[in-house]
Amino acid sequence: MTITEERAPYGSGAAHRPVATKRVRTHHLLEMKRRGERFTMLTAYDMYTAAVFDEAGIDVLLVGDSAANNVYGYETSIPVTVDELIPLARAVASAAHRSLVIADLPFGSYQASPEQAYLTAARFMKEARVAGVKLEGGAEMAPQIDRLTKGGIPVCAHIGFTPQSEHALGGYRVQGRGDAAQRLLADAHAVEEAGAFAVVMEMVPGDVATRITAELQIPTVGIGAGNGTDGQVLVWQDAVGLNTGHTPRFVKRFADAHTVLLAAARDYATEVKAGTFPGPEHTF
């Protein structure tokens, strides 16, 4: 049976893309939270992975500034620019027919003022055609979130460990332990009150993330924050084993894409050098 826009289900794990799909919107994530349904988020940086994840039923695709590490080869996310991320975001948004597509605002493109944040976010909305943006920071970013949401731009907040502030935080360290939990809780309420439609919590103690999830009306997304959040997000290269280097404790590898791709490339090289590819069936 063809799934129509009125009858399309929400939730993760679709075996295949239906003939007609209904786009996931921010309010659907809120509805899922209210029903106690968990949702999924993965990063994506190109059309093919976006199309695959969309078909798999991933609810949200994040064109993350993690493209700095996973596409451009930078050591951290700090160097990546707006002009480098917009083409990736455009490719993902064009390929995804169901998933909600949002993009990170990179370091230095929004912290200076709410107006700077709005102008940067507007570029992503107009040039990349994403459905929203994500920015890092808690209470200090409330003015930026307020400006964007009042200007018609959906915002996902990001608290806890914020990679763009790696140097200020003293490296990759868990945030919100002990007395710092109250500050994290205050940040979560601040971004909700400012108008964020969801908040990512990274490298936060599980009990703290669970408490925040229970107190907030908006959905929470965990990455290294335990399983008490409303949704989960991972960098796709980590999740499928394409990245064979060091990965954080919170990463689970659901496949071994590196081995598959390496074997295919070796087979290709072997056949070309042996003269067996291309064969008659590949020749005009």
UniProtKB/TrEMBL annotation:
<feature type="binding site">
    <location>
        <position position="65"/>
    </location>
    <ligand>
        <name>Mg(2+)</name>
    </ligand>
</feature>
<comment type="pathway">
    <text>Cofactor biosynthesis; (R)-pantothenate biosynthesis; (R)-pantoate from 3-methyl-2-oxobutanoate: step 1/2.</text>
</comment>
<feature type="binding site">
    <location>
        <begin position="65"/>
        <end position="66"/>
    </location>
    <ligand>
        <name>3-methyl-2-oxobutanoate</name>
    </ligand>
</feature>
<feature type="binding site">
    <location>
        <position position="104"/>
    </location>
    <ligand>
        <name>3-methyl-2-oxobutanoate</name>
    </ligand>
</feature>
<comment type="subunit">
    <text>Homodecamer; pentamer of dimers.</text>
</comment>
<protein>
    <recommendedName>
        <fullName>3-methyl-2-oxobutanoate hydroxymethyltransferase</fullName>
        <ecNumber>2.1.2.11</ecNumber>
    </recommendedName>
</protein>
<feature type="binding site">
    <location>
        <position position="104"/>
    </location>
    <ligand>
        <name>Mg(2+)</name>
    </ligand>
</feature>
<dbReference type="InterPro" id="IPR015813">
    <property type="entry name" value="Pyrv/PenolPyrv_kinase-like_dom"/>
</dbReference>
<feature type="binding site">
    <location>
        <position position="134"/>
    </location>
    <ligand>
        <name>3-methyl-2-oxobutanoate</name>
    </ligand>
</feature>
<keyword id="KW-0460">Magnesium</keyword>
<comment type="function">
    <text>Catalyzes the reversible reaction in which hydroxymethyl group from 5,10-methylenetetrahydrofolate is transferred onto alpha-ketoisovalerate to form ketopantoate.</text>
</comment>
<dbReference type="InterPro" id="IPR040442">
    <property type="entry name" value="Pyrv_kinase-like_dom_sf"/>
</dbReference>
<keyword id="KW-0479">Metal-binding</keyword>
<keyword id="KW-0566">Pantothenate biosynthesis</keyword>
<keyword id="KW-0808">Transferase</keyword>
<feature type="binding site">
    <location>
        <position position="136"/>
    </location>
    <ligand>
        <name>Mg(2+)</name>
    </ligand>
</feature>
<dbReference type="InterPro" id="IPR003700">
    <property type="entry name" value="Pantoate_hydroxy_MeTrfase"/>
</dbReference>
<comment type="similarity">
    <text>Belongs to the PanB family.</text>
</comment>
<feature type="active site" description="Proton acceptor">
    <location>
        <position position="202"/>
    </location>
</feature>
<keyword id="KW-0963">Cytoplasm</keyword>
<dbReference type="Pfam" id="PF02548">
    <property type="entry name" value="Pantoate_transf"/>
</dbReference>
